[in-house]
Amino acid sequence: MTRDLRTEVHQIPLSVLFSSFPELQAVWSPLHQVWKGLCANTSWENRFEESQDTEQKILFAETQDIPDVEKYQRLEQLGQEQREAVELGEGWFLNRGKISYPRLAWLPSFEQRGVFWYPKGGYREWHSNFPYNAHTDRAGWRIYLVDVEEEGKSGFQYLNEEGNCIHCADRKGYANIFWLPHDRFFWHAVFSRTNRFSCGFHPLPHLNATMNEILLAGSSL
Ligand SMILES: [Fe+2]
């Protein structure tokens, strides 16, 4: 029986991905260094903590359980995620639930999807990236390169096809990889109780065969 790689969330060591896609390492390494430096100074972390009002704390808390889908569909369609951005300096912004770096690299075979620092209490609330309107988000693989200060305190949550909430604990130096479908809602969320850094990429469709090979090899380790 062929496994459906597209219904699971995979965790693959960064070293494995970097040997196939050195361009990802070239983007990751300098940003990761910068992030390490930023974490050593707690001033932005403190700004983040102060910015977390009751509404945000609820969004964080709700990442732990099956979401109220109607509420999160409404929220997602409002698309207000970027609205409250406050500039911190050096190209970094305080956003809802996280600190982000929106200066994205241009790569021929990947779309870079975002550079995010989730301090303690950081989150990306439940969402589906479903194409509600003309501004569609493309179906396909998503690769999130991840590093965390402490393991066991953060993770990726998703609803599987049976509607169960599955917790995928982050691992230091591993990527979380999943298929974003467009014929159904793929509800997912992120939370962190430690410093968590992630860099997201969408490999363009001509890389799908390579992605399958990497995921099949990775799952038999
Ligand atoms: Fe997403």
Number of helices: 6
Largest sheet strand order: 1-10-7-12-5-4-3-2
Outline: globular
Structural Rg: 17 Å
Low-pLDDT segments, ≥5 res: none
- Given helix and strand content, the structural type is alpha+beta
Q: Which CATH-level-2 architecture?
A: Sandwich
Please explain how this structure is put together.
By secondary structure, the chain is an alpha+beta fold. Helices cover 29% and strands 32% of the residues. The longest helix has 19 residues. The protein is globular, with a radius of gyration of 17 Å. The mean pLDDT is 92. The site of fe (ii) ion (FE2) has 3 residues, from loops.
Features:
single chain; 221 residues; alpha+beta; Jelly Rolls; 29% helix; binds fe (ii) ion
Briefly, what is this?
This protein has 221 residues and is of the alpha+beta class. The protein has six helices and twelve strands. The chain has a single domain, classed as Jelly Rolls (Sandwich), CATH 2.60.120.
Question: Secondary-structure blueprint of this entry?
Answer:
Blueprint: E1 10-13, H1 14-20, H2 22-40, H3 43-51, H4 54-61, H5 69-78, E2 86-89, E3 92-95, E4 98-100, E5 110-118, E6 122-127, E7 140-148, E8 154-159, E9 165-169, E10 174-180, E11 188-192, E12 196-203, H6 208-219
Antiparallel strand pairs: 1-10, 2-3, 3-4, 4-5, 5-12, 6-11, 7-10, 7-12, 8-9, 8-11
The structure holds fe (ii) ion.
